[in-house]
User: Which sequence fits this backbone?
């Protein structure tokens, strides 16, 4: 069980997708779950929409309930990489309780660190598939055909909440609780820090190295030293 932490546009989504593929994990992104709920016009989507458009966090109670339902539906999966969750101390504590109820626990939290000015630059090039949620970047991680999703051929879009004024609001609101969550895992000896300024491949390699002593599908590896 892995948690990927980092500011907006640190590359969490891309790295979580790689970690899921490389380690056979379920990729659970709360941002993607909220966006899907919005597309489907469900009651959850209607509630989440206002918060997301303002660049605010969706209240913990709603977010935790959604994650609990997603986890309950994924009992067959060997492990999970959490992307964009937990984002507050309350969510981190609730996640521990949810996992304890399933007889499992977080093995490692990875903090992807990127300076603010680099983030602002990156956001300008971000595109996402509105259908499957796959993230792309115009220069760092382009799709095979410009403007089109590699997976399902859908025309890519820029997210409303990547607009500069919303983006800055998201950073202002989301960084302090993110550091609280990082401290929570650090105090439990579970936090690894990775420099997110490097290429996607280099960050993936750093994450792989940071988790080489655990089995993120659930069981801590016992190593013969
Ligand atoms: P993301 O795609 O992870 O950047 O999330 C997009 C938006 O969804 C955020 O700006 C929040 O409004 C909402 N969101 C995603 N994950 C969470 C979470 N764990 N807690 C509260 N709100 C969230």
Assistant:
């Amino acid at each position: 069980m892995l948690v990927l932490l980092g500011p907006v546009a640190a590359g969490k989504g891309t790295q979580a997708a790689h970690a899921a593929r490389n380690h056979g994990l379920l990729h659970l992104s709360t941002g993607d779950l909220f966006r899907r709920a919005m597309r489907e016009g469900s009651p959850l989507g209607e509630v989440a929409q206002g918060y997301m458009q303002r660049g605010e966090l969706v209240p913990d109670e709603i977010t935790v309930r959604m994650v609990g339902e997603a986890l309950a539906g994924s009992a067959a999966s060997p492990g999970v990489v959490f992307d964009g969750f937990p984002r507050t101390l309350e969510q981190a504590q609730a996640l521990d309780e949810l996992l304890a109820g399933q007889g499992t626990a977080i093995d490692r939290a990875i903090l992807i660190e990127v300076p603010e000015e680099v983030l602002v630059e990156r956001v300008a090039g971000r595109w996402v598939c509105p259908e499957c949620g796959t993230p792309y970047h115009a220069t760092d991680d382009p799709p095979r055909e410009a403007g089109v999703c590699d997976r399902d051929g859908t025309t890519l879009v820029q997210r409303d909440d990547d607009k500069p004024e919303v983006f800055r609001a998201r950073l202002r609101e989301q960084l302090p609780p993110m550091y609280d969550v990082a401290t929570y895992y650090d105090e439990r000896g579970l936090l690894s820090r990775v420099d997110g300024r490097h290429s996607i491949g280099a960050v993936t390699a750093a994450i792989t190295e940071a988790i080489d002593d655990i089995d993120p599908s659930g069981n801590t590896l016992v190593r013969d030293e």
